[in-house]
Design goal:
With 239 residues, the protein is an alpha/beta fold. Helix content is 30%, strand content 25%. The chain has two domains: 4-71, Ribosomal Protein L25, Chain P; 78-236, Alpha/beta knot.
């Protein structure tokens, strides 16, 4: 699979010359050691892409020719993950894993038991971008502003399918998502390390969310979103 870079000036004309000279160009030249005749892919982060071939390597740029251009359509299902705020290092890890797992919108939630109280999600934009490159995603996920309980309720009510993952769940995920389930807008809620409170759980269920489990092992909050997205994707047969 071709190495991917995101650029603000995506070329759109096959046969055109394109100078790759963004911040990533230095990494491509000095670390990846990309050479003449190699082919790599650039994207606008919103589905548009172009494959380019290197003609010349300079100190600060890769001079290329555009071989092919195209646009990847988004999947029919949009995944929003409401992630309770863990402490800073875990928050970064959560954003990285959620990006790699296919989240379209990441919403930090200031839960009652959140350890971090002041996390600024915008600072993880670079994390989402780099994780998208690593996983060859042509769509960089959006990062929402931090919400409290009211914001989570609004997201749940707007969803076709809302799932709150909690260790007390009595219903299997496979009983909630059946072959007949149709959903275009899925919201997944992941609690903090200390767990979702009984009051929060009841409030979200009353708003229309299903309470589901991820099996017997209790995952870290930062890791649970990855597992949840994988399980939901599998049951909804998203490709």
């Amino acid at each position: 699979m071709l190495t991917l870079f995101f650029v603000p000036d995506l070329p759109i004309q096959v046969g055109a010359s394109y100078s790759f000279n963004s911040e990533d160009a230095n990494h491509a030249i000095k670390v990846l050691r990309i050479e003449v005749d190699e082919i790599f892919r650039v994207s606008d982060g919103n589905g548009g892409w172009a494959n380019v071939q290197v003609n010349e390597v300079t100190k600060r740029s890769l001079e290329t020719t555009v071989l092919e251009v195209g646009r990847q359509e988004p999947l029919e299902i949009k995944f929003t993950v409401v992630q309770a705020l863990p402490k800073s290092d875990r928050a970064k890890e959560a954003v990285e894993l959620l990006t790699e797992a296919g989240a379209d919108l990441i919403v930090p939630w200031l839960a009652n038991r959140s350890i971090s109280r002041t996390e600024v999600i915008s600072k993880f934009a670079t994390t989402a971008r780099e994780a998208s490159k690593q996983s060859r995603r042509l769509f960089i996920p959006q990062l929402h502003e931090t919400v409290k309980e009211k914001g989570v309720i609004e997201l749940i009510k707007s969803a076709d399918l809302a799932l709150v993952f909690h260790e007390s769940a009595q219903v299997k995920l496979s009983e909630i998502i059946t072959p007949q389930t149709k959903a275009k807008n899925v919201v997944i809620v992941i609690g903090p390390e200390g767990g979702i409170t009984e009051e929060e759980l009841a409030t979200f269920a009353a708003a229309g969310a299903h309470v589901a489990g991820l099996g017997r092992p209790i995952l870290r909050s930062a890791h649970a979103g990855l597992a949840a997205l994988s399980a939901v994707n599998s049951l909804l047969k998203v490709f």
